[in-house]
Write a structure and sequence with these properties.
Layout: H1 7-13, H2 20-26, H3 34-43, H4 48-54, E1 69-71, E2 74-76
């Protein structure tokens, strides 16, 4: 949490009435929704990427299949 910011301060910045949301997020008792993530990014001095990585979210794209092979002007997906 930002130096000098209390859970009450952060809850207020998140538009919440109670600091319990802050404790639930810190203790991983609750996963934030997109609106809460956006509010956290706006309230804290970090980017969305930094916040998500701190939460343990993998931001690496999933492995994909090989790109299609070109054959006679048409794309043919490899057999599975």
């Amino acid at each position: 949490m930002e130096a000098g910011m209390t859970p009450d301060d952060l809850a207020t910045r998140l538009g919440k009435r109670s600091k319990s949301i802050v404790y639930r997020l810190e203790n991983e008792d609750q996963e934030p929704d997109v609106a809460t993530i956006n509010a956290l990014v706006a309230a804290l001095p970090l980017s969305a990427e930094e916040l998500l990585r701190a939460m343990g979210v993998s931001l690496n794209p999933p492995a994909t299949e090989k790109p299609p092979e070109k054959s006679r002007g048409f794309f043919v997906w490899p057999a599975r």
